[in-house]
Amino acid sequence: MADIDYYLEQIVKLRQEADLLPDDNPGALMQKINLLSTCVMYIGRVSSQVDGDYKRHNADRKLQYALAYRDAKTGKAAAAEIAIADMRQKEADLYQDMMRWRNALTSTTEELHALKLKLRVDYQLGVN
């Protein structure tokens, strides 16, 4: 978890630095692209960790369901569902985090592509 905290700090720091830079100056735009490229790396690491957390919890929930189903005398499916009700809520929270980080990765990557395209167009037009 210490790695995640470091990644989050870096994401916030890099994003703040990038947001302060103007898009109309080629040097600043290049610096912004570099900052966001590094930011994407950290977002990817967080996204990967959160995806893994979700998958591990999902596997554990399925195991707990199977065990509760096996151990129930009657109403096996109902007993198993009741046994894992809290786990389903936790899984929903993990899924929400997973999707949030996947979306952050996608949107930052798209922003980066747009900035690169702007830089290319500005260069071709001779804008300084």
Can you give a write-up of this model?
It is a single chain. This protein has 128 residues and is mainly alpha-helical. The protein is 89% helix and 0% strand. The protein has helices at residues 2-20, 26-71, 76-83, 85-125. The radius of gyration is 22 Å and the shape is elongated. The two termini are 44 Å apart. 12% of the residues are buried. The model has no long low-confidence stretch (mean pLDDT 95).
Secondary-structure topology with pairs:
Blueprint (H helix, E strand, L loop, with lengths): L1 H19 L5 H46 L4 H8 L1 H41 L3
Tally of DSSP β-strands: 0
Low-confidence stretches: none
Proportion of β residues? under 5%
Name the helix and strand elements from N-terminus to C-terminus, one letter apiece.
HHHH
**What structural class is derived from the secondary structure elements?**
mainly alpha
**Estimated helix fraction:** over 70%
- Put simply, the count of helices is 4
Major sheet characteristics: none
Distance between the termini: 44 Å
The overall average pLDDT, rounded, is 95
Coarse shape: elongated
Radius of gyration over all CA atoms, rounded: 22 Å
